[in-house]
Write a structure and sequence with these properties.
Helix content is 81%, strand content 0%. The chain is built from 14 helices and no strands. The radius of gyration is 21 Å and the shape is globular. The relative contact order is 0.17.
Length: 413
């Protein structure tokens, strides 16, 4: 029988992810402009991002050891269902009451607490739903999904934001989350309960944490990859309010142009993911390619806002294409390298590191955005990951290369 990536379980997960992304993209776009429109401050927008990432710094450490011992599917199903209820409730609230910044901060904090569990469950169960030998293709699909949907949904969200308002967008987002939860409930996967009838105790939790720490301490390649990813994602989060403010205030720019700007990058990402799906790159060539992408992408961020708008679009399209290729290679390599019994805990460490960096850099970039011209602020911040790519990746290349050259079984699809 011919092997295929598109098994029942993988197809259901991708369908559920699609439904969740549709609502999430529209809601995130609308909420980003709502905060700036209501406050007029890049720092206020940055505080929202900083608040949202706080649960990701602490909660994964609590949940991950438990999740490595219990089935992960229930976390996934009920996480999306609860999110759906909360988004719908927020939309109904916005129909009847005025926006309050403090209330929005509290709502964001609650959602982030729930999403930190949901995302950890998704990242941990996803590799187990990819048939053996299809890791690169599986992650190519997931990395292509969001860009494609973003191209479609973001312009629609920009129109709906002005036409129907934020409330109905949030209600729709709640419905899509509920549909995603319903779809995930049909996934059939044999997951073991590793507690063996024992009560999960604080001492057992601490033992699981120490075991993961011992494993990670030996893996210098993972340490370096996670460190660079934390910096580059942190800067990206910090620059997001700067981009919103630039497109809102610079002469000749608007939210509609921002939607096209974002679409250009996601078109590039979609094409890059399609290439990854069709072409298998030799293991020996992965590390040099990834390091080149890191250098190129970071430099393009440095010059981004100084370019004429048509070249800004080209800049994002090329970066999207290359970034999608490197991200797919990294995800497939790292997730197949980590043993399944450690995956939730190691993914939790990565999440905590990235979100801590995002919180710090969001505040720094938001503060600089109050003091500096937006173009200068973006360029200064983008220099940081450019330097860190040499420190963490190039100077530790012997360790990092080992992960990218880790064997992936051949497939015959």
């Amino acid at each position: 029988m011919k092997q295929t990536l598109w098994t029942k379980n993988f197809s259901l997960l991708i369908l559920a992810t699609t439904l969740g992304c549709i609502g999430g993209i529209a809601g995130s776009f609308a909420l980003s402009f709502l905060v700036f429109d209501e406050t007029g401050s890049t720092l206020a927008a940055a505080v929202v991002i900083a608040i949202e990432v706080i649960p990701y710094v602490f909660l994964p450490a609590i949940a991950a050891p438990w999740m490595d011992r219990l089935p992960r599917k229930p976390f996934l199903v009920f996480g999306d269902l609860i999110n759906g209820v909360l988004f719908a409730a927020a939309g109904i609230y916005m129909l009847n009451f005025e926006f309050t910044y403090v209330g929005y901060l509290c709502f964001s904090l609650l959602l982030s607490c729930l999403n930190s569990f949901d995302q950890l469950a998704y990242d941990s169960i996803y590799p187990n739903l990819i048939p053996k030998g299809f890791e690169q293709k599986g992650y190519a699909v997931s990395s292509m999904l969001y860009p494609v949907l973003n191209i479609i949904i973001t312009p629609i969200a920009a129109i709906l934001y002005d036409k129907v308002g934020i409330a109905w967008i949030l209600i729709a987002q709640g419905c899509f989350c509920a549909l995603a939860s319903f779809t995930e409930s049909f996934i059939s996967i044999d997951e073991k309960n590793c507690l063996d009838g024992k009560k999960y105790s604080l001492s057992l939790w601490w033992k699981d944490i120490k075991d993961a720490a011992i494993y990670l301490k030996k893996e210098r390649g993972l340490q370096r990859i996670y460190s660079y990813v934390a910096v580059t994602n942190g800067i990206a989060s910090g620059n997001y309010p700067i981009l919103i403010a630039f497109f809102r205030t610079a002469p000749g720019f608007s939210p509609a142009l921002y939607s096209l700007f974002s679409a250009a990058e996601f078109i590039g990402r979609s094409i890059g993911s399609a290439v990854q799906y069709r072409i298998k790159i030799d293991k020996k060539k992965k590390f040099p390619f990834v390091f080149f992408v890191y250098q190129f992408y970071d430099f393009m961020d440095v010059i981004l806002l100084w370019l004429p708008y048509p070249l800004m679009l080209l800049n994002r399209a090329v970066c999207g294409f290359l970034g999608s290729n490197s991200a797919t290679m990294r995800q497939a390599a790292v997730q197949s390298y980590i043993p399944d019994e450690f995956r939730s805990r190691i993914n939790a460490f990565e999440t905590m590191l990235i979100t801590a960096a995002s919180s710090v850099f969001s505040l720094i970039c938001g503060f600089l955005g109050e003091l500096l011209d937006y173009k200068i602020c973006m360029s200064v911040c983008a220099c940081i990951p450019l330097i860190c790519s040499w420190i963490f990746i190039w100077f530790g290349r012997s360790h990092v290369r080992k992960i990218y050259e880790h064997g992936e079984e051949e497939n015959k699809e």
